[in-house]
Amino acid sequence: MSFTIQGDRKVSFWYDGHMSKITSINPSTYQVIGSVDSSTDQEVQAAVEKARQAQPAWENAGLEERSKAIQSFMKISQERAEDIAEIMSQEMGKPILSSRGQVKETVEYWHAYLDMAKEALAPEIIFETDEERHTQYREPLGVLAAISPWNFPFLALAWQMGQALIAGNTIVYKPSEETVLFAKLVAELVAASDLPEGVLNILIGNGQVGEQLVSQTIDGILFTGSTATGQRITELVAKSSVRVFTEMGGSAPGIVFEDADVPTIIDTIYDMRFENTGQYCDGLKRLLVHESKLDEVLAALAEANLKRVVGNASDEDTDIGPLVAERQLKLLEGQVADALDKGAKVQFGGKQPDGLEGAYYLPTVLTEVSYDMRVWHEEVFGPVLAVVTFTSEDEAVKLANDTPYGLGAFVFTNSKERYQRIAKQLKVGNVAHNNTLYYRPQIPFGGYKQSGNSRTNGVEGFAEITQIKVVSEEK
């Protein structure tokens, strides 16, 4: 059986029930840049077994020894930083300067996790009298499956798996089929590091390989990706009582109140929508503007847009690269077409750029958006921003919460009292104020509603991927 991307343009992979090959396509050019064999059912089973065999020794090695092994992986990653950045840019379209920044940021996250691990994982006396003592310990869950998306490939290693590995879990990791060359490179980095064999195992494949992985005997699943896939995984393992930790879709609102200082916040608004070509789970996807500020905000967005360059991800002048694949471009074009058919207006963008052959779409701002449009009620994973107006705080909160998602929100106001009042009413896991964002390794991150059921980062991130054991003893 063969599967193609958009007609007969490129063969993505071949599957005959036993072996498949996944072809990697550069979205900046639509050129094939390599291919990798997909993991077989036997390889999936073997990876889980290796992780199972390695887990007791990894746990018993203790935090200090685990930290040393992880630090060796970080050291090798830093030595290969340019290779990592280049493959991300070529394979999923992240601009090269952004890719280099992601490598640096990822290493910083690993170091931060290691710094907080001793305290987060330390035994705690939770009740004590003259006669007895009760101590709470945090122990690893065991063997975890990790299924990651393509939009932040290297950072996902830290965000999704860093705390789990530090705590003594072993992992079988399946990244997206859109980043198979990146996965191959990570396997090389792991092999060259001091991480013991079986601690971090890499699989390559599509959703079929992912389903095979979660059907194995495992102790937990770390999933980041679409809500539909996260729900599918949860259904598959429901009878096994395996813990599923999900971070899924988002449609974060940005609320601009009448007292907001537009010149100081416009770059945050622009970047939180259009950076990474809008391919953020937690990106600012719906902009709610007080009616008195609409003209000023639209003019400032248009001015900010003139300063950005759309182009090949490998070009150091590029600010905004292509979407990850042609299928993502077609989905986005369908969402915009639906909006235009229903009366939306394009302020700028709204089409592919001239002179570029790839999965490009210009940064786009839509106004006169109605609530029956796909750009309002679906997750928009691309550089398109839907703008609506409001007249009161109550209306702003109602519009912000008008979504099945609840990952994050952005509130722009110079009133601290108003900010606190609004933040309390938003049904999301994280709220940002003006230019103060919440992307820090020390700050828990996760969503409400259909955006997920777990938290990464911070002390809470360690709590999620460990289990509590209480040891009660006589004195």
Tell me what you see in this structure.
- This protein is an alpha/beta fold.
- It folds into two domains: 38-248, 3-Layer(aba) Sandwich (Aldehyde Dehydrogenase, Chain A, domain 1); 252-440, Aldehyde Dehydrogenase, Chain A, domain 2.
- It is built from 15 helices and 21 strands.
- The strands form five sheets. Strands 14-15-16-13-12-18-19 form a seven-stranded mixed sheet, sandwiched between helices. The protein has a five-stranded parallel sheet with strand order 9-8-7-10-11, with helices on both faces. A four-stranded antiparallel sheet has the order 1-2-3-4.
- The N and C termini lie far apart (67 Å).
- 49% of the residues are buried.
- The model is unreliable at 1-18 (pLDDT under 50).
Task: Compile the SSE list and pairings.
Layout: E1 2-5, E2 10-15, E3 20-26, E4 31-37, H1 41-60, H2 62-79, H3 81-92, H4 96-120, E5 124-128, E6 132-140, E7 143-147, H5 153-166, E8 170-174, H6 180-192, E9 200-202, H7 207-214, E10 220-224, H8 227-236, E11 243-247, E12 252-256, H9 262-274, E13 284-290, H10 294-306, H11 326-341, E14 345-348, E15 364-367, H12 374-377, E16 384-390, H13 393-400, E17 405-406, E18 408-412, H14 416-425, E19 430-433, E20 448-449, H15 458-464, E21 466-474
Parallel strand pairs: 7-8, 7-10, 8-9, 10-11, 12-13, 12-18, 13-16, 15-16, 18-19
Antiparallel strand pairs: 1-2, 2-3, 3-4, 5-6, 6-21, 14-15, 17-20
